[in-house]
Amino acid sequence: MEDKYILKELCRYTIGTYADVIYRNALLHPDREAFIYKSRRITFSEYNTRVNSLINSLRKMGVRKGDVIGILSYNCLEYADFFGAAWKGGYIASPFNFRLQASELEYLINYSETNTLLVGPEFFDTVESLKGKLKNVRNYISIEGTAGDMTNIDDIFENESVGEPDIQVDEEDALAIVYTSGTTGLPRGALYTQSRFMDNTKNLVMEMGLQPGDKHIQIMPLFHIGGIHHFRAFLYIAGSNVIMHQRSFDPAATLQVIQDEKATDIDIVATHLVAMLAVPDKEKYDISSLKRMWYAASPMPVEVLKKGIETWGPIFAQGYGQTETGPEISDLTREDGKVIDRSPEEQKILASAGRPSYGVHVRIVDQDNKDVAPGEMGEIIVQSKHLMVEYWNRLDDTKETLIDGWVYTGDVGYYDNRGYVYIVDRRKDMIVSGGENIYPREVEEVLYGHPAVREAAVIGIPDSYWVEKVHAVISLKEGVTATEGEIITFCKDKLARYKAPKSVEFTESIPKNPSGKILKRELRDKYWEGSDRKV
Asked: Phi and psi at residue 179, in whole multiples of 5°?
């Protein structure tokens, strides 16, 4: 940068945008490692040139500012390039859940109006089979290999200009669609702008106390709001993201990487902690560099959390949020974890979701939308500057969820007189298994397609590994039979595997109220009796 006026250069992109963050890091920390992926180590200067090459190539392909670019891949270095190109180039990033079946992906890619699709090598065949059904996709780019007539992203990095693109993004430009599911099981995309993501990024940096040079292990999938959340926080403070490419979580390998990289941070779900604590020789791994082990996406059993604190110290912090809320709603801090040697009453906060995050208002209301008193149950509603703008192309759904500036979460809970929020149930019966949201009705629709099934109800029940697992309660048609294995296989053939039931219960009849509605609470109660946290 010797020949440039660096302060003037730092003013090239609009304040409050990720274009400004990416360029600032390249100018001020050119040789600092931004991303580590397998044997590749990419500096912030190199990252900026990779992003520029991808933007310049996309523009030649006819991709315009505001177009949607999608990615279907496991976590990889090119995922970081993809986000950077979207956020700096004015495109809308649309990351897709790689666990979905081909028919589910077809729906999502069409629903999102994706113009250009980046594809990881494990999904070449799936995408090739869908090409004739994808209405809006004009360009296909392959990652880590070639497939058919797809453009290889390595050719782009090798041959395309690395110059700064002649484009400017603004704070209110859309930059991402992050997917959730409605109670009907139909996916919906939460739309975010630069400013809304940026507000949440700054809040997380403050909540966690991040510093330049901190190093994060990225195991959460980058299609997930939580995975994106921490990814951008470390990008913002010029920290490092160590991206792990895992089809399934490997606890021993993760502990090894924490040790080798001397990582300061990792973002996990409850099942990850269960798995790491179960590693037989976990004591041999030196993970003393960790300042924070942040957990989210699903409730953490208190006994598991206590064991984690006893094993690795009070490094645990929790974030509660939703795809629609940016995600941050509340936080349980590391300081809150320093209660395991105190009275049961003081330890109770370990079962909470913490207190409202910086810049977030949380209320709990009854069915008449009136605030409830401490200790009383109600629906959790949230207001902040980092809520989604709307559901992409879902006006009616937006009106049901976002009311007068408040997101109605559908989560039922209560709060105490110190402002700690406790989640006790989900009004919409959502199941959270291994950190993934699963809506029973979607599974029930598949079950009703089985020729032997008369009635079906899907609930979440406790599980020592998954925290909560999908359990199907089924009554069969008269004169026919079916086995648990047959039912599970039937569902796995039609759904993402994580959505399929892990257990099946056959019964003569399913309990209902006088109007004929199935009483799921009655089905669940026997499994959750005596539990500290009923989910």
From this structure: -95, 140
Q: Could you give the residue ranges of the DSSP H alpha helices within 183-322? A: 194-208, 225-236, 251-261, 270-277, 302-312
What CA–CA distance (Å, rounded) separates 414 from 377?
Answer: 5
Tokens standing for residue 225? 């709001």
> Domain 1-32+44-169 class?
alpha beta
Question: pTM score > 0.90 for this model?
Answer: no
Question: Tens digit of pLDDT for each residue in 194-209?
Answer: 999 999 999 999 999 9
423-434 confidence digits (pLDDT tens): 876 666 778 888
In CATH, the number for domain 431-528 is 3.30.300.30
Give tens-digit pLDDT for 435-469.
888 878 788 878 988 999 988 899 999 998 898 99
Q: Nearest to residue 354, comparing CAs of 366, 337, 338?
A: 337
Determine the Cα angle at 359 with ends 354 and 364, to 5°: 55
d(CA 467, CA 435): 9
SS3 call for 456? strand
Burial bucket for residue 3 (CB in 10 Å: 0-12, 13-18, 19+): exposed
Angstrom distance (rounded) from CA 108 to CA 492:
19
Neighbours of 449 (CB within 10 A): 12
Phi, then psi, of 299 in degrees rounded to 5: -60, 145
What are the domain boundaries of the chain? 1-32+44-169, 431-528
